[in-house]
Amino acid sequence: MPRRLALHHPDPLLPSLLETMDLSLTRSLAVSGTVCGIPLDKFINLVVLDLEGWENLEDENLLLICRSKMIFLRYLSVRNTRVSKLPHEIKELWALHTLDISYTQISELPVELFELTRLWYLDLRGTQISQLPKQIVGPWRLQILLVGDDGITNHDVWHLNIVYTLATVDLTEQPASFVRAFGDLHSLEVLP
Question: Is residue 95 part of a domain?
Answer without folding.
Answer: yes
